[in-house]
Amino acid sequence: MSDVTVASTLDCQGMQCPLPVIKTAQAMKTIAVGEVLELLATDPGVEPDMKAWSSRTGNELVGISNDGGVFHVLLRRAR
């Protein structure tokens, strides 16, 4: 995931579902098609939530990693 250029970072640390999903949907509208949004979250539910959200919306889930309890989610805007 380190070779991906991030256009914008959304910090949702400390927020619980559904806020990270709602804020991600809003933030994706602010970047161009093909650009990548990085989501930072501490809610463990963010991993299944982002998998379902990206599948439902058609945006690409580039990857998810967990660094010391902080999830780093990379999403590429598809449309």
The CATH class is identified as Alpha Beta
CATH architecture: 2-Layer Sandwich
Rounded mean pLDDT is 96
* Superfamily (CATH H level) name: TusA-like domain
Structural class: alpha+beta
Count of alpha/pi helices: 2
How far apart lie the N and C ends?
21 Å
- How many β strands by DSSP? 4
Which residue ranges are poorly predicted, with pLDDT under 50 across at least 5 consecutive positions?
Answer: none
What is the chain-wise order of helices and strands?
EHEHEE
Kindly report the CATH topology: Translation Initiation Factor IF3
Question: Major sheet: size, sense and barrel closure?
Answer: 4 strands, mixed
Helical percentage: 25-40%
The spatial strand order of the largest sheet comes to 1-2-4-3
Radius of gyration computed on alpha carbons: 11 Å
Percent of residues in beta strands?
Answer: 35-45%
Number of domains: 1
Shape: globular
